[in-house]
Every structure is written in C-alpha cells, then in structure tokens.
Fold this sequence. Notes:
Number of strands of chain A: 18
Structural class of chain A: alpha+beta
Number of helices of chain A: 9
Oligomer: homodimer
Largest sheet of chain A: 6 strands, antiparallel
Largest interface: A-B, 57 and 57 residues
Amino acid sequence: MTVPHLTTALSGPMPDLERKILQATPTIEHWLRAQWQEHAAPFYASVDLRNSGFKLAPVDTNLFPGGFNNLNADFHPLCVQAAMGAVEKICPDARGALLIPENHTRNTFYLQNVAALQTILRHAGMHVRIGSLLPDLKEPLEVEVPGGAKLRLEPLERHGNRIGVAGFDPCVVLLNNDLSAGLPEILLGLEQTVLPPLHAGWFTRRKSNHFAAYQEVATEFAQLIGIDPWLINPFFEKCGRINFQERKGEECLEGYVTEILDDIRAKYREYGIQQDPFVIVKADAGTYGMGVMTVKDPSEVRGLNRKQRNKMAVVKEGLEVHEVLVQEGVYTFESVNEAPAEPVVYMIDHFVVGGFYRVHMSRGTDQNLNAPGMQFVPLAFEAPCSAPNPDDPGCPPNRFYAYGVIGRLALLASAIELEQTDPALAEEQAAAQPRVAPY
Amino acid sequence: MTVPHLTTALSGPMPDLERKILQATPTIEHWLRAQWQEHAAPFYASVDLRNSGFKLAPVDTNLFPGGFNNLNADFHPLCVQAAMGAVEKICPDARGALLIPENHTRNTFYLQNVAALQTILRHAGMHVRIGSLLPDLKEPLEVEVPGGAKLRLEPLERHGNRIGVAGFDPCVVLLNNDLSAGLPEILLGLEQTVLPPLHAGWFTRRKSNHFAAYQEVATEFAQLIGIDPWLINPFFEKCGRINFQERKGEECLEGYVTEILDDIRAKYREYGIQQDPFVIVKADAGTYGMGVMTVKDPSEVRGLNRKQRNKMAVVKEGLEVHEVLVQEGVYTFESVNEAPAEPVVYMIDHFVVGGFYRVHMSRGTDQNLNAPGMQFVPLAFEAPCSAPNPDDPGCPPNRFYAYGVIGRLALLASAIELEQTDPALAEEQAAAQPRVAPY
C-alpha cells in the first residue's frame, strides 16, 4: 500500500482547506449519514477532482465508471463489501446480475475493467454474466484479457419485459455502458432493476444538471464546516444552443467565458492568488475527455479554426455537441514524477472504495488530463494511521480523507440529480398537481 | 498482503468441504442476505475456527473481541467501512461514541486493541472517548501504547439515565468489556444504545445457548448446500451443576464425555477418519481460554487432581464455574512454521473485516491454542483473485472464503442467541401470552 511520491501535495504543509475538512470529520460523517437516509446513492461512480491547494473541487462525475482495474488491488475487499451492501439494499433477493459493458471489444484496458467488475460482483456472491449490446453479435464471443482471464460476451435476449442471456434470467441489470449512442430499445420498459437508471445515460444526462445539484450540496456543506463554498465549487454556466460547425452560438459562449473569467478573477483577488484564471469549455453531455478545451481569453472561443471546431463538435459515438458547459478551471498542484496529476475517486454505493492519480506527462497543470497518453497511479486511500500516533493530524494517509469527502459530495449531487431528472418521478409529480381547467 | 506459509492447509489439495462452500457462493450469499433481513448482527464479533480438513467448525464466538490490533493493517479500511455501515443502521444520528474497555491497564496488547478500535471508530467519523470501569479511577489516566499512541481512560459519569465522561454525552456506548465480573450498576437502565447489549456479557451469557442457536443455523445451512451438518457443527452437551472443588457433578460430566466420544467415534467410522476422538471441556460462561481441558477418555474427568480442579473451577475475574460445556474437539490440520494454528475471523456488523492465525508452538493439534505463549499471524482474507484468472477455483486467497462463511454462520447464531436471551423480549412475550386464571 504505497503512496506515490507527490512532489507538492504531500511534501508541503497541508493546505488549510484539507485541514478544515479533516478536523470536521465527525460533523461531516454525521451530516453525510443523514443525507444518505434521504437520497439513494447511485450503484457506483467515479469523480475527477482537481486540487489547486487553495481549492479542491470535482470537475467530472462518471456514473458508468471504467477503470476499476486501475484501483489498488489491496482495496478489492472494500469494493466487494460495498457491493454486498448495495445489493442488500437495492435487491436483497438478487442472485443473478447481468453486466452490460461498452462495445469496445478491442480496448484491452476497458476489458480489464469489465473483468474487475465481474470479479467484484462474483466475490459479492452474485452469478454474473455479460450481455453485450454489440449489434451484430449472434454467438457468445470469448475475448482474452491481459492477465489470463477470459471474458465471455453474450448476445442479449429479451423475453417479454425481462432481459438476459441464453439460459440466464438475472434479477438486476448493471450498466457499464453510458448510453452515449442513445437508449437501445431492448432496454426499454424492463421489469428488472436497472442500475444506474437509464436516465443516467449520456443520451439524456447533462453535466449542467449535475453541477447545479452539486452547487446546492456544496453550499450546504460549506455552511456546515464554515468555509466559502467557492473553495469546493467551480463556477459554471451552460450555453444551450451551440453549433460549432455552423459557428452558431459563439457569442453566447464568449459571453459566459468572459463572465466566469471575471468571477474567478474577483475570487483570486480576494484570496491573493497570483495565477491566471482559466475556464474549461466542454460538451454538456458526453465523456472520455472528448470535446474539452482550456480557455484563458474570451476571444479564443470566437476564432476557432476548423480543427478546433471539429474537435469540439462531436464526442463519443458521434454524438453532436449543441450544449456546452463553461466551467471554472482548477489548476492541479499535484504531480507524480513531475507530471501533472489529478485524483480520481471511486465509489460503490456511498462508500469510497479506492482511487488513482490520472497523470499526463505532456499536459499542463491547467489542462484536461483525460486524454490519450494518460497513465494511472493507484492510490492508497484511508490507510491506517494507528502507528505511530493516530492523534497526529498530519498523519499522511489521512490527507486523502478530503478527497473522499469531496468525491462523496459529488456522489450526493448525482443522487439528487438523478431524482430531479427521473422521468417517472416527473410524471408522478405532474399527475399529483391540481389541474386547472382550460377555461 | 502476504499469506503465511501454511504447510498443510494451503499446499495440499483443497478439502472437499471448502470446495463445496466455494462453489455455492451465490447460493450462500443470497441466503445470508435474507438472514440479515431477519436478524440484526451484533456490532462486532470474533470467531475461533478449527479446520481439520474434513471438518470446519466454530469453537468459540467472542462478542467483545480483543485483538483488532492483530489484524492485517491493510484491512483497516474494511473495518472502517463496516463500522460506518453499522452506525448508519443502528443509530444514524450518532456523533459521539463511548468505548468501555476491559480494566487491564497493564496489558499492552490489549491496550493496542483499544487504540485500534478507537482509530476505526474515529475514521468512521465518530467522536470517541474512553470511559473506564476501573473502580478507583478519579482522574483521567493517560497510558502509553507501543507505537506511540496514547490512550486516555476517563472516569465514567452518570447523569440520570445517561452515561458519559466529563463534558461528553455520547449517543452510543460500545462495550469492549465482556462483563465477566458482573453487570455494573452504572450501566443499568441507560437510555443510550449499548452495543452489544448488556445480556451479551459473560455474567449471563452461556456458550451452550450460542451453540444451540448455531446448531439450528448449521442445520439449515447444511441443507442449503447439501452437506452433513456435522461437517460444520461440533457435538456438544451442557452439564449444569458442577462444583469442581467439591467434586460434585463429575458423573454428569463423565456421562456426557462418554456420549460425545461415542457420537464422534460413529461419525469418524462413517467417514473413515483414523484419528482419536477427543472432547473439550470448558466453562459455559467465560473466556480468555481459561477453564479449558482436552479429554480423550471419560475416566480423565473423574480423577482430577487438585491442580486440574483449581484450573477448571475459576475463570476470568474469579467467576466460579458451575456450568460446563462438553464440546466435540476438532483437530486443526493447519500449521504456521510447523506450530499448530487455528484461524480467527473478525467481523463488524455482518461483514468479515479480517482475521489471523492463532499459533502456539508448544501445543498439540488437539489442544486449546488460546493460552499464554500464543502468537498471531495476520491473515489476508478475500484477497483479489482477478489475476491471473478469476475463474480458477483453486485461486489461493479464495480458500479463506470458507472461513468467512463459517464465521458468519456463528455470527448469525449470536444474533439469534441474543434475540432468544433478550430479557426485554422475554418480558414482552410473557405479557403477550394469554393468561390462564389460576382456578
């Protein structure tokens, strides 16, 4: 359980914010317990964090996390325990789980993630089979995964309102496919529990909804421990009508970039921060670090050349970008072997089960690190601090506690976001509204 | 996360029983989930197991476990996560926990256990103070623990029906004192949640009640996975009126020893086992491996000499032994560095959080190993088996799964035992009975 050598984060004094979070541990855990009584955590999530020393904030929350293979192997039991707890709460009677992964059969890193997930669920005591959305899959496909494991991808079968694979009728369907390509008909109207719910998929999910929910959570949390909410919450705005190819909506974008840069500048002045403010412009729907750019001056979003426009216009699965999130950029002050690094926190149910640093040798501290060439350094979270002295607040592994807290705030925001965007709930609420006759 | 070198257990082929348990994983976990819907797990427990290769059984279940300091440090996060879950279920609103330890202020091993427990609870987000039952403690006492930590033992204070220490009114009281010396008045009628409940204390608890509950659990479980319940359940009987000093009750003891030895002999014949049957005679109440003897011939319990009688007559805190459990002895076929070893499984809530081998250089494979001179070798339970191949059933760490299962069966038995012996429930049931008029 070795902690990577972090040239800044772990050798300097602990930033004030982390110390405040650490000191408020009992208050925070008590508050979180109450939140989880009110809101059901998604089955799993990963949260990308940025720690600039003065500010620690989530910048992306993934509800279909890949990368379980990148977690420290020591934390596998933690994943299993959390998965057992989740199954117990969501469907104690479940015996069989159907895992539906992405269609990347040639991405061996992703396949390792699927194998890791399958192992976690098996060790949690489930029968697990893998059902594939590959459109032309007629027979089970065996793919080899580095390390010697074999994955068996089977064609999905639907019978009435139930889905499964040949000879296997699962109680629960676990999606590890983020539905960027849209909602497949075969998943519609299932009577089985689907985790996370379909409306968590990128065909309908919006980052702006997530960060709006996060803003509420962050504000309440900041009040709880007596800090400025900005220290954990990046400014953001949404541009709803963009067409990069047709160069429509650039003024809106420029306006919001200006506004947010001004807001950051004011905060930097307030805190005496010397760095240049920057914003991240990214697709409001979508993932994989596609369609992301760093902007330091509003003029940069006006004069986009063809290459830049192409890059921003289309994300994963060819999804066109018409809505864009403009988010305050957070410098990372962490590095691993002198390359900029950002922590990614993994959760199952409402428990932190591990994490890693995403490291990119050829990127700057003000850039998106989720890009080809990135590497992963597994993290040891919450390691014991019983020796030499549990009372020493500087006890190194405890520094990761803050990451786990901010990760869980983003998770809580996801729980609230999924409630707010639940189509079934929206219908119910509409039905419960007193109707006014049309005359 | 190294697994100790086990000359027999891990080098030979996996025993049939372990394989059966491993193969039934989804069935077992599904059944256990249903059990935990019905029965509330004690806050924590440790279970001593014996694995003879053909038989794997619990021989003692401790509801006030010491030895958390002996767990593999890698599993600390697992303890924290399970403790968080337990607090959430039992008293989500809790902020402060009062830990009441044993009065052994000079036993540095035990103090390390208290420090480990305190750290677990703190990392689970609780304020933790230690309240001592030491009768003459007037001022807080600071004791140093190997490793540099300091424990602060504070005098208990009672205000009305609440207990605490100076300036600290906890929501929950966690006992790590097994109440062998009786039930202190200061703990009576508290309005705070006390974990485990007072009637789990040795002043009233009986091993025979535990093993009677375990027998039911083992029978149902054996049916579930299609095995002979004897393979996981040791025969036992209780002698209720013994006085070793006055040599009373020896016939009863001799009778039961004969009976159980005969029963074991019949089973050994059935399974073609060549070893000599033996029984363990031990106090029905009490712990610390005191008052325990190995018996291979009924005559041995008749002619006890003074030294043997003294050893059996009194256990921890001077508690006199008048009730005795006669239990089938289970050979251990495990060894660490050629010394006999038995696994001890630790649980918090209903999760296995670690374990160790108790090893004794100068004891035999048919003897109690819980005796001065024992050593502890931390175990890595449920380590990941994702590489090289998760489908390989011989994948070494999975062999420990069986220990976790039998440990949890004993835990379930404790949950049922505590329901059955709950004085409050007994009163309620008596009140609910239709009364028959006395004429």
